[in-house]
Amino acid sequence: MIWLTVLIVFQQHNWHWVQERMRDLPQLRQQQAHVAIAESIANQAAKAWSPQVSAEVNATSTNDPTAVFSGKLANGTFELRDFAIVSPTGFDTYPVNNPDAFSDLLLHIHANQKLYDGGSSHNLRQQAHWQYQSQQWMFRDHEQQAWLQLVRGLLEIDMLTNQLVAAKELLEHTELSLRRVEALAAEGQVPTVRVAQSQASQASMAARVIAIEALLTARTQALANWLDVSPSDIEHFPELPKVPDIQTTDIRYSEHVAQSILHASESGQKSILPKWKPKVNLNAVFTNHQGDQTHWWAGISASWHLMDRGASQARKGQASANVMLAQAHLETQQRSSKQARDVTQAMYAATQAEHRALSQAEQAASSSLQAQNAMLEEGQLDAGSLFEVRQNLLNLQQDRIATQARMDQLGWQLLDAHGIDIQSVLMKGNQP
Questions:
Q1: Residue 405: burial class (beta carbons within 10 Å; 0-12, 13-18, 19+)
Q2: Are 182 and 195 in contact (CB under 8 A)?
């Protein structure tokens, strides 16, 4: 039990390593940025009912009569002599026309609090929330498809590896038969034409091995480039677990995206106010002059939107169209999910039947090859006939391995079609 536990932990560690590489994919980082932007917008919308407070400090100096007298009045330093226009003698001009320069330090604080806006802020906040949710689900959908792409790549590499093993094994048998035929020809027991036939068979099998090796190298390099790792890292990836049985069906991430977009569109439609609904605000102002004189005022304002030459009606029409579009998109995603489940399930069943038939044909071809090998050694069969049997067996092996890989791929696609998170399945590894 100890070594089994260690093995499971090691596999989990490997999948965690893969998870880190997957998180660094550019397309997922880009989608994460969209999520962060949507979250910021949602946070801003959530604070729409928070009081808005601003402060301003002004330091001024002026001899403009209007500014001087209003400043003195606000500052509490206005004197009666400031009203004088001329002196009794009529020669000296008093400050009312030519005041001395006046300096002031003004602190101005303004506060605004929404009291009522007909539900517009609430619905805009809901719209931003659902837009944020849609971006989150969209990230999960991108992540799901990326993991599914990884599984496809690993399955293809596994298929080519198995095909290479089978081809090399058959090549060894072909080379063994060639040596036997060459020995028999040297003793004069078989004609030299059989040697040529065996050599052709061996060359054909060797070429097949080289072709599979080249394709395996190319696919491994492609997957390594996608993950930004080395081909040797791909070779040390943990083994893919068996596809678990599907117990439940959940909503696919693409459907969650469509649902969130619909909710956001509905909230946006509700945020457009009817003309009869007012916007009511509480405003308050506090001022301080030179740190001594303080003044304040507070008031409630109500405003109505009366006419905009049809602009608000156009916005309502656009919002209604957005809702209709979102509803159609959701229905499309729901139908697409159902079709994906039904079609993939049918293809999986057909591939299973094909795999069983190929396995039986491969077993029969293997038995036939063993029997004809014995006949070749006894001189009852020429090498040309044996070449055809070997070629047929190799083709059956390659087809059976490819069908197994296609069946495994369809199994993982079924998980996605049923809304099961592929990353979670892989992170569990081969644990029951």
A1: buried
A2: yes
Helix axes 311-377, 253-270, angle to 10 degrees: 180
Rounded to whole angstroms, how far apart are CA atoms 134 and 137?
5
Rounded-to-integer distance, Cα 196 and Cα 181, Å: 10
In this prediction, residue 48 carries a pLDDT of: 82
pLDDT digits (tens, 9 = 90+) for 198-249: 788 889 889 999 999 999 999 999 999 999 999 989 988 888 988 888 877 7
Nearest C-alpha neighbor of 394 from the set 414, 365, 419, 418: 365
DSSP state of 81: G
* Predicted structure pTM score: 0.77
Report whether pLDDT(6) > 50. Answer: no
**Helix, strand, coil percentages for the chain (3-state, nearest 5):** 70, 10, 20
Given this model, what pLDDT does residue 8 score? Answer: 43
Site of tokens 């602190």:
107
Give the single-character DSSP code of 101: P
Nearest to 295 by CA among 284, 303, 307, 309: 284
Which residue from 307, 292, 233, 263 is spatially nearest to 75, judged by alpha carbons?
292
Q: CA 91, 93, 94, 96 torsion: positive or negative?
A: positive
Cβ-proximal residues to 196 (8 Å cutoff; 6+ apart), any chain = none
* Nearest-angstrom CA–CA distance, 121 and 49: 8
Q: Are 260 and 134 in contact (CB under 8 A)?
A: yes
Structural domains in the chain, CATH included, are 2-47+118-283+310-428 (1.20.1600.10), 52-116 (no CATH)
- Distance from C-alpha of 50 to C-alpha of 115, rounded to nearest angstrom: 10
CA distances from 258 to 141, 172, 248, 416, 418 (A): 11, 56, 21, 17, 16
